[in-house]
Design brief:
Layout (H helix, E strand, L loop, with lengths): L14 H11 L42 H13 L4 H11 L5 H5 L3 H7 L8 H18 L6 H24 L13 H5 L1
Helix pairs in contact: 2-3, 6-7
């Protein structure tokens, strides 16, 4: 599916391959024939290729002078307040001048939270899908029973939820016997 033969070392062989390797080392983009396949969207025709990317950096910037202990204390404090890891990252970036927690501490925000014993009962992306499904259910039950577009969106959201639940059951993040039940969804997200 558009994936080139990537077996072996591409920097050894024909002159064309050597030119491509030199271009990659200089940071230039190469043609489609050498790129790895990109994960497509689940329920649309898009490939999800566009969007901004963070630059590759392996050291925190000079202007960020927060030390590891202060950052971990802030993460724990905001987690106790009920903030998600995405909200914690945004707060640290905007209010405390910490552009990347992983660069500054060596750990992701979710790893710091779980190490301190404050891991939520459901993973954050799964909880977001449950909240989205509950919002759509509330919309459909509040006098919009014929809204066929949102009925379809509820089906797609529930499909994503079942798929991610299968992944987390395999990883051991949720119980093996956990199943999605629409009538019990409100109790799970409370």
């Amino acid at each position: 599916m558009g994936m080139a033969d990537i077996t072996g070392d591409p920097c050894q062989g024909s002159p064309q391959d050597l030119d491509i390797c030199a271009a990659v080392k200089e940071g230039q983009q190469i043609g489609w024939d050498r790129r790895l396949p990109i994960m497509a969207r689940m329920h649309s025709g898009g490939k999800g290729q566009s969007g901004s990317k963070r630059p590759f950096v392996d050291t925190p910037p000079d202007w960020s002078d927060m030390d590891k202990e202060n950052i971990e204390a802030l993460v724990v404090r905001y987690s106790k307040e009920g903030k998600s890891s995405a909200e914690i990252g945004t707060i640290l970036r905007d209010q405390h001048a910490v552009p990347d927690v992983k660069l500054a501490t060596g750990e992701r925000i979710s790893a710091i939270i779980s190490r301190n014993g404050m891991e939520p009962s459901y993973p954050e992306d799964m909880m977001n899908l449950m909240r989205q499904a509950q919002r759509i259910i509330d919309h459909l039950e509040s006098g919009n029973k014929k809204d066929i577009h949102n009925r379809r969106q509820l089906e797609l959201t529930e499909s994503r939820l079942r798929r991610i639940a299968s992944y987390y059951r395999g990883k051991g993040k949720i119980p093996e016997d956990w199943t999605y039940k629409r009538d019990q969804l409100r109790l799970m997200i409370q």
